[in-house]
Inverse folding.
């Protein structure tokens, strides 16, 4: 018969769990911000493995010696609350949003590639040309502006205001 008290009663002080959750969440958010926008795009299998491995790596420091359901629920609530708090703060204070949230970065301006943004996001000219072709554009000179969006996607504005083609969806979607 399970010991219901140890299953539901916190096994680690609540303040310690809150602090562990807070520090881990904020440090991971900072690391993701530094990694760049390009990494925010679609997830491949290696990305899924990376998420699982990072989760396993931070779990012991996150939960300490906890073993109850209450510990896990408090940690999850801490992470969700911090996520909501940062979103609310970014909404309320636009200056703070510039630090917390990613902004679109100009990859192409008036038909010229921005080498500075390419270096920052570790994108090659070939990768950008692939994205242009997916939008039905063969030459960078056809682009008035192209932005690397916060979600990792590239938005394109053609010269003359023409709409680019919709990028094809991967098979099976």
């Amino acid at each position: 018969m399970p010991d219901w008290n140890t299953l539901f009663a916190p096994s680690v002080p609540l303040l310690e769990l809150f602090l562990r959750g807070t520090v881990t969440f904020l440090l991971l958010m900072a690391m993701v911000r530094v990694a760049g926008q390009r990494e925010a795009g679609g997830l491949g299998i290696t990305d899924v493995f990376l998420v699982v491995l990072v989760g396993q790596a931070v779990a012991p420091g996150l939960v300490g010696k906890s073993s109850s359901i209450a510990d896990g629920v408090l940690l999850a609530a801490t992470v969700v609350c911090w996520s909501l708090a940062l979103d609310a703060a970014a909404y309320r204070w636009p200056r703070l949003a510039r630090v917390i949230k990613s902004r679109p970065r100009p990859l192409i301006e008036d038909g010229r590639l921005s080498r500075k943004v390419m270096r920052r996001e570790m994108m090659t000219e070939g990768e950008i040309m692939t994205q242009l072709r997916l939008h039905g554009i063969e030459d960078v000179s056809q682009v008035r502006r192209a932005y690397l969006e916060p979600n990792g996607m590239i938005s394109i504005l053609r010269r003359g205001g023409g709409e680019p083609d919709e990028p094809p969806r991967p098979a099976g979607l």
Q: What stands out?
A: Residues 106 and 148 are 6 Å apart (CA to CA).
